[in-house]
Design brief:
Elements (H helix, E strand, L loop, with lengths): L6 H17 L10 E2 L10 E2 L4 H12 L7 E6 L3 E6 L8 E6 L6 H6 L3 H6 L6 H15 L6 H4 L14 H4 L4 H27 L8 H4 L2 H14 E3 L15 E3 L7 E2 L5 E6 L4 E6 L10 E2 L6 H8 L2 E2 L8 E5 L4 E5 L1
Parallel strand pairs: 1-12, 8-11
Antiparallel strand pairs: 2-3, 3-4, 5-10, 6-7, 9-10, 13-14
Helix pairs in contact: 5-10
InterPro entries: SET_dom, SET_dom_sf, SETD3_SETD6_MTase, SETD4_SET
Organism: Hipposideros armiger
Protein name: SET domain-containing protein 4 isoform X3
């Protein structure tokens, strides 16, 4: 009997697979709080490419002139869904080059059926609200949406503090709890201030907009933009508020997980009209390919992406003073 192919080995692999499934995806799918970026055994990886939703996504991307020779979707222990190298990747190599036709930006929104409504609305909506509105509307469209293959692989729920029950947030250390409450207030204020704008979209829908643009729907869209977008500075449009227009959703590319120990170069290339990620270090075949979201501590990672890293060199301790009695609280 060959090593690794017996009954015991098969049982071990099944257990490891189930363990990975229970933890969920750590790259902004955020079904768990812990993100461990250890290197898995190749035998424990589950190829995602054969799943119907990824087959449809690949067809959709191909129609938009994108095919990836370097990476393949896979599921990894500890990090969940991610991208695995099909071949060895060398330092300086472009590992992914996603055409502008695949990106979802405010330009996409303005060119859509929402454009005329945004252009005439006063005061001008923010770029963030425009992206959230588009996501909610397209998700509601279901099979009629040209973005359905992308929407189908997005998380159904997120584990950001803004999505958690107050009784769970109350268990957080004081500094994190305060930030989580601020985050919830921002989203609630966005929803409240946008109700009239949503009402103006009623001619586009046969159902009442109140049932489509609910708080839960906006929260899902807000989390999607907040956790999965890449930085891409767009030209200023008069139909939007003065807030920076720097978010782009990048289907497939957004499967890349975070590691604080890697370096990549990521930017939109105006010559190729593609969003490119270039490796700053080599990567062996069948390894998970990571990018770095930034030098964030675990509080920032949890607030912005819904996970923490067990091996975070940027980890720090937040100290908040309790003035009465001059006591101090240490929050991790």
């Amino acid at each position: 009997m060959k090593k690794g192919r017996g009954r015991t080995s098969r049982i071990r692999r099944r257990k490891l697979s189930r363990s990975s499934e229970s933890r969920g995806g750590a790259f902004r799918d955020a079904h768990s709080f812990i993100h461990d970026v250890g290197t898995p055994d190749i035998s424990s990886l589950l190829n995602e490419s054969c799943k119907p939703e990824f087959i449809e996504l690949k067809k959709w991307l191909k129609d938009r002139k994108f095919e990836d020779p370097n990476l393949i979707p896979a599921r990894f222990p500890g990090t969940g869904r991610g991208l695995m190298s099909k071949t060895s990747l060398r330092e300086g190599q472009v590992i992914i080059s996603l055409p502008a036709s695949c990106l979802l930006t405010t330009d996409t929104v303005i060119r859509s059926y929402l454009g005329a409504y945004i252009a005439k609305w006063q005061p001008p909506p923010s770029p963030l609200l425009a992206l959230c509105t588009f996501l909610v509307a397209e998700k509601h469209a279901g099979t009629r949406s040209p973005w359905k293959p992308y929407l189908d692989i997005l998380p159904k729920a997120y584990a950001l503090p803004v999505c958690l029950e107050p009784k769970v947030v109350n268990l957080f250390p004081r500094p994190l709890k305060a930030k989580a409450r601020e985050q919830r207030t921002r989203v609630q204020e966005l929803f409240t201030s946008s109700r009239d704008f949503f009402s103006s979209l009623q001619p586009l829908f046969s159902e009442a907009v109140e049932s489509i643009f609910s708080y839960s729907a906006l929260l899902w869209a807000w989390c999607t933009v907040n956790t999965r977008s890449v930085y891409m500075k767009l030209r200023r449009r008069q139909c939007f508020s003065a807030e920076p227009d720097t978010c782009a959703l990048a289907p497939y590319l957004d499967l890349l997980n975070h590691s604080p120990n890697v370096q990549v170069k990521a930017a939109f290339n105006e010559e190729t009209r593609c969003y490119e990620i270039r490796a700053a270090s080599s990567c062996r075949r069948h390894e998970e390919v990571f990018i770095c979201y930034g030098p964030h501590d675990n509080q920032r990672l949890l607030l912005e992406y819904g996970f923490v890293s067990t091996r975070n060199p940027h980890a720090c301790v937040y100290v908040s003073e309790v003035r009465a009695g001059k006591k101090y609280f240490l929050g991790k």
